[in-house]
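User: What would this chain look like folded?
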Amino acid sequence: MNWTADRDEPGKLASGVLAVAVHIAFFALLVLGVSWQHHAPGPVEVDLWSNLPPLPQIKPPPPPPKIEPKPEVKPPPPPPQPKVEAKPKPAPEPKPVAKPDIALEKEKQEKARREREEREKLEAVKREQVARAEEKKREEAKRLEEAKKREQAEQQKLAALERERREKQEQIERLRREQEEAVARLRQQQASAQAKMVDEYKRRISDKIRRYVVKDPCAALGNPEIVFEAVLLPDGNTLQPPRIKRSSGSAACDDAVLRAVIRAQPLPLPPDPVLMAQFRELNLNFRPNE
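Assistant: Here's the prediction, encoded as structure tokens.
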């Protein structure tokens, strides 16, 4: 402690003594106040009652007075707050300038990294394009294979239909040929039967005419053949007199045959109208001397 400095300050000692005296007086007052308030307890008196006194009637309290509402007191507007000026942000410290070699190396590495990423992206795109092209190629091959199978199935179906059509056509042609052959055989049989029937009725006509021929004019000729023509009616009579188409060489013999035809009417004719059509214009080869 610097006593020299304390002596040089006036009133400092007096203020220290006064402070000590105040503390002593405050402590004494505190002790006396606590002891003054402490009293000894007095005696307790007890009254005994045989009967309780009647309870006093309690009047109802008066109604509370009407409290008129106090007029609303608007609080005074708050005092304007002082404007706090925003402190400017400190400027960022400048980054240290990298050395040229390190910056170039980083730039090269960054460029190499970008080029590598670009190459990877291009390779990924190429792989995806190749995969899509292969998938498209497989789908196209599958589609062509399915189309080829459908075409083969359609061709087989058409070939089967064509075979079936040809078989049916051949069957129809065979049946047609068989029918035509059957019809031809039937017609041939009918023609043969008709020819036999025609020959039979021509023989009958010749036999009937021969019974009426005067053979003397034809006897000297040997066995001559005369062809005459006659138009016959359905009843066997001639529509007009017959005429000689090929003479026997003797007019007398020819006249004898024509007179015999007229005398032999009605000539025997077939009842079938179809056969009768062949006797409408009769051309008969007649031998009078048989």
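The chain is about 55% helix and 5% strand. If you want, I can go into more detail on any region.
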